[in-house]
Amino acid sequence: MIVMRRDLKMRKGKIAAQAGHACVEAVLLALVRDNRLGDIRVSGDDWIELAPETIALEDATFDAKTQGFEPGAAASPLEAWFSEGVAKICVYVDSEEELLDLHRRAQEAGFISALVRDAGYTEFHGEPTYTCLALEPLFPDQVDPITGGLPLY
How far, in Å, are 1, 10, 85, 122, 126 from residue 112 at the CA level? Predict the structure, then answer.
């Protein structure tokens, strides 16, 4: 889940850079938290994957309709993010206050929230500015209470 500030009226390239930074940080923080950073692998076709925790997880599948796991399924949203190609959704807020409130609520729920503060060198007249955040990979039922009411960007 990516949340952008629409009120800043950033150029498309800036939006892409900020969202990319937030997503990379959120995934890396989740990998570090779960002590899985060493499990990152590059497959034979140059695809980045997360080594399964157990052999049973290798053929994991997540049932999007029921939001549940089939036998041998990924044990976490992080594993599903790497193995299943789950949706990445971008929504927006219209103020710094809304962005900071979402960040706080995500942290209170126990989720990793990577909040990006741009240094301001290229677009914000030298003012450090909060531009977006990304949440760690989560299943819809986990993230919807926090971001489910936000409009798609």
Answer: 11, 25, 20, 28, 28
- Determine the 3-state secondary structure of 153 from DSSP: coil
Q: Give Cα separations from 30 to 5, 27, 82, 92, 128 (angstroms).
A: 23, 5, 12, 22, 25
DSSP result, 18-76: HHHHHHHHHHHHHHHHTT-GGGEEE-TTS-EEEPPSSGGGTT--EETTTTEE-TT--SS
Q: Write out the two tokens for 101.
A: 């409130």
Q: How many CB atoms lie within 10 A of CB 7?
A: 13
Q: pLDDT, tens digit, for every residue of 45-91?
A: 778 888 876 433 344 444 444 444 454 456 688 888 888 777 889 99
The model's pTM is: 0.81
Strands 48-50 vs 2-5: parallel, antiparallel or unpaired = unpaired
Q: Tell the residue number behind the tokens 């977006």, with chain if given.
A: 132
Pick the CATH number of 2-147 from 3.40.1490.10, 3.90.650.10, 3.10.20.30, 3.30.70.20: 3.40.1490.10
Question: What SS3 state is found at 104?
Answer: helix
